[in-house]
Amino acid sequence: LHQNRIDVTYDGSGLILSIRDTVNDPSRDVIFVWVSGRLSEVRQGGRRVQYDYANGRLWKVWSPDVPDRPAAEFAYGASSVCGDGLANPYLLRIARFPTGGSMEYCYVRATVGTEAYTYVVSRQNVFDRGRVLLKSTRMGWTFLDGRVTWAGFTYADQEGVKGSEAFLFGDGISSPSTRIAFDAAGLELRRTVTHF
Fold it and tell me: Which residues, in sequence order, are CB contacts of 182 under 8 Å at separation 6+?
């Protein structure tokens, strides 16, 4: 029948090395370059995206589209804007782009078991180069036995709330998952139920 096939190769430690698509043309291969277990480059044809790290965390991404400056820069740790009191040095706080725009993230600590916890994003703000708020997404989460059972998202901009969504996640076996979209006033717009 059809010979649609994608070949993926890995090294001995399980890191992805290359992807070849169904055309089977080596010039279309996606090549992954790793240095000390960290992704250093992704190449395809004559294009190359590079990744720089500082203090063990992703710091800059370099794109062939913007060769003279980073396509993105990242900052981690505490945030004076969020007021969440979390100073975890591994939490991504800001992603800055060459346009001058940025995305900022706030977190909450969430218990996902009897003794385990994680950090989940509670807010993402998108700013233009003049620090004008373009979009803000507030997020809420409910966990049960380490699994997300409910997630809520509220979308806003500098003028106020634009709408929201709620996701109720079933167990994937006997109960369905439901997505409900609401307008700015909280009136239900649509409901989608998915059975697995």
Answer: 163, 164, 165, 166, 188, 189
Q: Which residues contact 128 (CB under 8 A, 6 or more apart)?
A: 99, 100, 101, 134
Of the candidates 143, 142, 185, the one whose C-alpha atom is nearest the C-alpha of residue 163 is 185
The CA-CA-CA angle for residues 94, 99, 105, to 5°, reads 15
Closest by alpha carbon to 94, among 117, 71, 78, 108? 78
pLDDT by 10s per residue, the chain, length 196: 566 788 999 999 999 999 998 777 888 899 999 999 999 999 998 889 999 999 888 999 998 877 778 889 999 887 766 777 777 788 899 999 988 999 999 998 888 777 888 889 999 999 999 989 999 999 999 988 778 899 999 999 999 999 999 999 987 667 889 999 999 999 999 999 988 6
Report the sign of the C-alpha dihedral through residues 158, 167, 94, 119, in that order.
positive
How far apart are the C-alpha atoms of 48 and 26, rounded to whole Å? 15
